[in-house]
Structures are given as C-alpha cells and as structure tokens.
Amino acid sequence: MAANWKMNKLIREAEEYVEELLPKISGAEGVDVAIFAPFTCLPEVVRSTRDTAVLAGAQNFYYEDSGAFTGEVSAPMLLDVGAGVVIVGHSERREIFGETDEAVAKKTARAVSAGLLPIVCVGETKEERDAGSMWEKVSGQVRAVFEQVDAGGIGGEAIVFAYEPVWAIGTGETATPEDAQDAIGRIRGLLGELGGESFAEEVRILYGGSIKPGNVDDIMVQKDVDGGLVGGASLEVASFAELVNGAAMGSDDS
Ligand code: PEP
Q1: How far is the C-alpha of 231 from the C-alpha of 244, rounded, in Å?
Q2: Are 59 and 78 within 8 A, CB to CB?
Q3: Which end of the chain, N or C, is less packed with Cβ atoms under 10 Å?
C-alpha cells in the first residue's frame, strides 16, 4: 500500500505523520508500505522510517545523473538521501508537466539500473475511455517502457506498475472492481508477452484512483490487483492506516 503525498506536508508534519502511523500499522503483517514524500521532507521520512519495514520514496526524478538540469533531482541523489523507491510517470507529471512516454521509459530504465524500485504509472483519460481507446493508451504506455528496459534482463521484482485511470485520480470516482481487474489483467498479459510468464507473475501491479477505506476491499480482492497507490486518502494517518490494516486482513484471507 503506497501513500502518494503529492505536494503536501512540511517537515514537521511528515515527522508527526510517521510517528503516529507506525504504531497504528504495527500489526499489519504481509503488507509492504511505502510513503512517497515531497523532496523537502523525504530525508525526514527516511530518518523516521529507518529500522522499520516502511519504505521511503520520491515522487519523481530525472534520468540523467548530474549536470545542467536546473530544478531536477537524480537517481544517485535519491539513493544518497536513502530513498529506495520512486514513482515514475504519474499522470500529474504526464498531464501537467508534459512528460512523454519516452521520458517515463528513460526514467524507469535509470531507476532500475540504479537499484531504485520504480512504480510506473499508466492510465487513460476519460475521453480515451469513452472513445474505447483505453487499452490502446495503456498498452502503448507499457510497451514504451520496454523500449528502454529489457524485460528479459530484469526480474519481475525490479519494477512495479500502477494502473491509475486519470479520470479516477482525485475525483472521488473509482474504477469498478471489474474495470480495475480488466485493465490490470491485460497489463499482466502484456508483461507476459514482453518478458515471459514468470516475469509477469512476479511484477506487482497496483490500482490507484480515489481509493478510500470504504471502496478499497472490492478492488483489492481482484485476482490481478496486488495493492493500491493512494493520494488523497493517504494524507490523513487514520485513513491510510485503515487501508494498510485492511490490506493485511485481506492478505490473511488469501
Ligand atoms: C494518486 O495520486 O496516485 C492517486 C491515486 O490519487 P487519489 O487517491 O487522490 O485519487
């Protein structure tokens, strides 16, 4: 279960959040938890999660390692600060900041080669869904990644995907469990074509888009859904803890 704080929280707020969260999720066995913090409070999240199973991650980075790229942060810089995971190609990066499939693919390749675990976001807009081109869009985004990453050359544990329909992000509108399973099942099928069956089985694929404690269970029980990427509902400790603990109960049942 992954918390994407987006552009929220000051250092003190990050510290208080982690302090409050850790005891609340201490019984959640079998669930990997990651917090994707803004760069400014990432060192604090790294510090306060050290010696715990919670991973500290960044929301973005640039694929070059150093140089004249004002405003950017590189993979070695993230590793230097102690981050182990990074979101790549979030729809807000693609839609607001114009990140292309090629840039997302280069970032993914650099994360993998640097030893950072990328969570690669893919998903269609409302217009694309309504026009029946959801799969064309999503499969194109996935295929683009593997123009830069050799699926046969990395293990499935080296990359995570998140299916995040753009129309469901921050809108309160969630994909139906069937739609989430349909898209994620097809992504897994495509990963099988690109990297083989065992690669496809190993890759974790998350759903993201207006997940809340009240709507998560039906999505998480879907066959191919391995977890959630949570924006709004991760900003409050209580709701994120509920999502993590709910996922732990779900994993007990399976
Ligand atoms: C996200 O930021 O990846 C996300 C899914 O946001 P929200 O949960 O607010 O829709």
Answers
A1: 14
A2: no
A3: C
Ligand 1, residue 168: give the atom nearest the CA.
Answer: 10
- How much distance in Å is there from the Cα of 68 to the middle of ligand 1? 31
| Number of other residues whose CB lies within 10 A of the CB of residue 50 | 10
What is the spatial distance between Cα 17 and Cα 3, in angstroms, rounded to a whole number?
A: 12
Gap between the Cα atoms of 86 and 161, Å rounded: 11
Q: Quick check: pTM over 0.90?
A: yes
Cα of 210 vs centre of ligand 1, distance in Å, is 6
Q: Which two tokens stand for residue 237?
A: 């400790």
Quote the tokens at residue 160. Answer: 């995570």
pLDDT of the residue at 251: 66
Provide the token pair at 168.
């469901």
Which token pair is 222?
């879907």
Give the separation between CA 17 and CA 6, rounded to whole angstroms.
15
